[in-house]
Amino acid sequence: MAYETILVETRGKVGLITLNRPNALNALNSQVLAELLAAVEGFEKDGTIGAIVLTGSEKAFAAGADIKEMQSQSYVDMYLGDFFSGWEAFTRTRKPIIAAVAGYALGGGCELAMMCDFIIAADTAKFGQPEITLGVMPGMGGSQRLTRFVGKSKAMDMCLTGRMMDAAEAERAGLVSRVVPAGEVVEEALKAATKIAGFSLPSVIMNKEAVNRSYETTLAEGLRFERRLFHSMFALEDQKEGMTAFVEKRAANFQNR
Ligand code: CAA
């Protein structure tokens, strides 16, 4: 597929997707969604890829859903089209996705970063849910995911005032996992993704699945789910290899089996 709104590359065992609508600060329209889903699906099926990095430009990860695309839509258009529901497919990706965020991550941009598995931010990053300034509210998960990331008080502040959070505040609040100097964010994310891609893929996917389950269920059910997955890992050749390598004081050579 020839992409017009994203750039898709591989760096070793890592798939790198760059949002590329510079004239619209990477605003997320239907074409971006379709292309992003196709690229991610390609990496999901590609046995040589172990992790994915999603980034934007230095100025903007993404400045939101495309306001010009939504501006004249009616309620019926939005409801019957179940607008934004297509993004749920992105969240079903099994391989880890790291968001490398520089500049603006606003509205749908912040929501897309939160759909990834973790966020590495440049010190220039600015996060916000400014939908209220447009007379609406978040529609791609902001009111739900941001609240789970940073708690009710800060999420309420962000959604009701529309103010932006800088990278330092985002790190303090637990929205991002690390902040790195501008210009290094993609390299840092690629380094982390390369490390992940060197581990056993089944174990990577089970780790991701278990952490994600903690958002969906009670502690007791989550612990049970974790334990059952942990037990199942003893059917993996990579479990034998990982533990044997430790005992033999050598590096593990995972076969992804
Ligand atoms: N949708 C469509 N176009 C957008 C856009 C968006 N979300 N954000 C920026 N653009 C476009 C601008 O219209 C402009 O295009 P033109 O040159 O054709 O006029 C171009 O990108 C550059 O933007 P600015 O001139 O505004 O750049 P700036 O540096 O002066 O300001 C900004 C940067 C503060 C990020 C500003 O662009 C801005 O406020 N953008 C909108 C942010 C926003 O409200 N996001 C939420 C969208 S709604 C949403 O996301 C709903 C949801 O929950 C999913």
TrEMBL record:
<keyword id="KW-0443">Lipid metabolism</keyword>
<comment type="function">
    <text>Could possibly oxidize fatty acids using specific components.</text>
</comment>
<dbReference type="InterPro" id="IPR029045">
    <property type="entry name" value="ClpP/crotonase-like_dom_sf"/>
</dbReference>
<protein>
    <recommendedName>
        <fullName>enoyl-CoA hydratase</fullName>
        <ecNumber>4.2.1.17</ecNumber>
    </recommendedName>
</protein>
<keyword id="KW-0276">Fatty acid metabolism</keyword>
<dbReference type="InterPro" id="IPR014748">
    <property type="entry name" value="Enoyl-CoA_hydra_C"/>
</dbReference>
<comment type="similarity">
    <text>Belongs to the enoyl-CoA hydratase/isomerase family.</text>
</comment>
<dbReference type="Pfam" id="PF00378">
    <property type="entry name" value="ECH_1"/>
</dbReference>
<dbReference type="GO" id="GO:0004300">
    <property type="term" value="F:enoyl-CoA hydratase activity"/>
</dbReference>
<dbReference type="InterPro" id="IPR018376">
    <property type="entry name" value="Enoyl-CoA_hyd/isom_CS"/>
</dbReference>
<dbReference type="GO" id="GO:0006635">
    <property type="term" value="P:fatty acid beta-oxidation"/>
</dbReference>
<keyword id="KW-0456">Lyase</keyword>
<dbReference type="InterPro" id="IPR001753">
    <property type="entry name" value="Enoyl-CoA_hydra/iso"/>
</dbReference>
